[in-house]
Design brief:
Blueprint lengths: L11 E7 L4 E7 L5 E6 L6 E2 L15 E5 L9 H10 L4 E2 L4 E2 L4 E3 L14 H9 L17 E2 L9 E2 L1 E9 L2 E10 L3 E3 L5 E3 L2 E2 L2 E2 L2 H6 L4 H5 L4 E10 L3 H18 E2 L9 E10 L3 H22 L11
Length: 312
C-alpha cells in the first residue's frame, strides 16, 4: 500500500494545477461497477449530481468524481470529464445515449489570491487524460489554492492541499483522498495542532479559537471546505455506502477544529468497487481512520504559495 487512493484496483487520479492563479482541479476515474453515496455536513456546500447519490435514487454506478477550485464557477469543469468519458463510451446506459455520471464538489479558493480565474472543462479534460496510478500530493490540483486555520482571518492561515491515506486489513482495502481547505485548525491524533491559525510562528490555540464563534463577521469573511473521497473494494449496497459516508465525518471531527461550520462546505463521498465481502462497520471504522489521516496528509505535503506558510 502506498497511502494513495489508487491503492484500490482500477482507480486513477489526475490533477490540473494552475500555480500562477492559485487554483486547479482533481479528477478521480473509477472502475466499472463502482457504486457510492455522499453525505453533506457543511453549511455552505457547492456540488453537482450529489442528489442522485442518495440511497433512494435510481442510478447506482458512478464513473468519476471531480473535485475543483473556483467555487460554483468550477462546477462547469465537470463537462470536461464527461467529454472524456463519452469518448471512452462510458456512462449510464439509455436507449439513446450513454450519460457519464460525474458528481462534483468545490472549494472556495479566491481568498488567498487576486485572480478570478477558475478551472474550466478543458482543464478537467486534461486532468482526465493524464489520470494515473501515481499522483502528486500537497499544493496541486483542487488543493492548489487551499488553506486552513482561517477562523481568525486568512492573514493567519496556513497552507492546505491534497492528502491521501490507505489501509489494508486482510483482503479489504480502504483508501481516501482529501482536499483540505478548512476554516478550522488541523489536529494531530492527540488533539494538538498540526497546522492552523498562526501568528509570529506560534499557533493561536484552542482558547482563542473558541472565541471566534462570537465574531460572526470574522467567520463570514472566510469561505471554506474539506472534501474527502473514500473508495473500498468491499461489496456494499448503495445504502451501506451512505452509512460509510456519514461515519467518515467522525474522521473530519478527529482532525479538524472547528469542523462543519456554517461557512464550510464539507462533503464526504464513499464508494465501493464491489470485489470482496466485508461488513459495513468494518469499512466505516477503517474509513474514519484513513479519512483523518488523509486530512493530515494534505497539510504535511503542502508547500507555501502567495505567502501562505506551510509545514514544509
Amino acid at each position: 500500500m502506498n497511502n494513495l487512493l489508487t491503492d484500490i484496483d482500477g482507480v486513477k487520479v489526475g490533477n490540473y494545477t494552475d500555480e500562477k492563479n492559485g487554483t486547479g482541479c482533481t479528477v478521480i476515474l473509477l472502475p466499472s461497477n463502482t457504486i457510492g453515496s455522499c453525505d453533506v455536513r457543511g453549511g455552505a456546500p457547492g456540488s453537482r449530481e450529489t442528489a442522485l447519490l442518495a440511497p433512494d435514487k435510481h442510478v447506482q454506478e458512478i464513473n468519476a468524481i471531480l473535485l475543483t477550485g473556483g467555487s460554483a464557477f468550477g462546477l462547469d469543469a465537470a463537462a470536461g470529464v464527461m467529454k472524456y468519458l463519452q469518448e471512452k463510451n462510458i456512462g449510464y446506459e439509455t436507449p439513446w445515449i450513454k450519460i457519464p455520471i460525474v458528481p462534483a464538489a468545490v472549494i472556495f479558493d479566491y481568498n488567498i489570491r487576486d485572480s478570478k480565474i477558475y478551472p474550466t472543462a478543458e482543464n478537467a479534460y486534461y486532468a482526465s487524460t493524464t489520470a494515473a496510478k501515481k499522483y502528486s500530493l500537497g499544493s496541486v490540483g483542487a488543493g492548489t489554492g487551499a488553506s486552513v486555520g482561517k477562523w481568525n482571518g486568512v492573514q493567519f492561515a496556513m497552507k492546505g492541499g491534497i492528502g491521501s491515506s490507505s489501509k489494508k486489513v486482510g483482503k479489504l482495502s480502504v483508501a481516501a483522498l482529501a482536499v483540505v481547505n478548512a476554516v478550522g485548525d488541523i489536529l494531530n491524533e492527540d488533539g494538538t495542532i498540526l497546522a492552523g491559525a498562526l501568528n509570529k510562528n506560534k499557533f493561536l490555540g484552542k482558547k482563542k479559537r473558541e472565541n471566534c464563534f462570537f465574531d460572526k463577521e470574522l467567520l463570514q469573511t472566510n469561505s471554506n471546505t474539506t472534501l474527502v473521497v473514500l473508495v473500498s473494494n468491499a461489496k456494499l449496497t448503495k445504502t451501506e455506502t451512505n452509512i460509510v459516508a456519514q461515519r467518515m465525518h467522525n474522521g473530519f471531527a478527529r482532525s479538524i477544529s472547528p469542523v462543519h461550520t456554517s461557512f464550510d462546505g464539507d462533503i464526504s463521498f464513499a464508494l465501493s468497487t464491489n470485489k470482496i465481502k466485508a461488513t459495513v462497520d468494518m469499512v466505516a471504522e477503517i474509513g474514519i481512520e484513513v479519512t483523518a489521516n488523509a486530512i493530515r496528509s494534505a497539510v504535511k505535503n503542502a508547500i507555501s504559495i502567495f505567502g501562505i506558510p506551510s509545514l514544509k
